């Protein structure tokens, strides 16, 4: 029974050793053993790997970071690690692995070794990074376009605000002109009455008032013309005032829509930034 179990275990470990890349470290990161599969992936022989330190297979940026120190501290405390990792081959190229680091404990519960089982995912990671890079470029272009629209919207909003202020000024000027036209109309009405009274007095004066009658008649004619001109100006000013008021309302409506669009653009920009951050996280390594 024991012999049969040992045979089955031997077959199992032989199969694992033949199909997976396996490397073993002491608790401090020194390589104790690397099978043929791992040696072929990394470009060294199994004999060359024995005695090397784990850091010699890692990118310099990772080795010099606090994450690397914590990585081995955690393994030394018996905490397993599983993630995609970047390693450097003997030729200096990047090798991407789906790696599982498993601390091996002795009878006292102390870590005596760390076994790493890895699968080569370099091809998949290369495609992923290229896709993420292209995606970031697209997002950056979309963000730039959105920023241009945002800036244009802000400029239009400012111009609309200035136009609104100028329109208010025009409206006030027209109202002042209307009051002047009303005043002219009032004077014309008084002049008509004055001319009428002068005509009556000229008629009473008979032959002596004939010259005065001509002047009185001209005063009435001038008053009538002034009154008609004042009415005409007042009507035109009313039309202009209505158009200006309508324009002011339209400007306010457009300004409101632009402000709403500006808020939407800002929200869209935030979404782009979130997407870019997500794409960046796809390529985070240990």
Automatic annotation (TrEMBL):
This is Chemotaxis protein. PANTHER family: LYSOZYME-LIKE PROTEIN-RELATED, METHYL-ACCEPTING CHEMOTAXIS PROTEIN MCPB. InterPro entries: MCPsignal_dom, PAC, PAS, PAS-assoc_C, PAS-like_dom_sf, PAS_4. NCBIfam families: sensory_box (TIGR00229). The lineage of its organism: Bacteria, Bacillati, Bacillota, Bacilli, Bacillales. It comes from the Bacteria. One of its GO terms (cellular component) is membrane. GO terms for biological process: signal transduction. Keywords: Transducer. It holds the Pfam family MCPsignal. Residues 81-133 form the PAC domain. Residues 22-51 form the PAS domain. CDD domains: PAS. Residues 112-286 form the Methyl-accepting transducer domain.
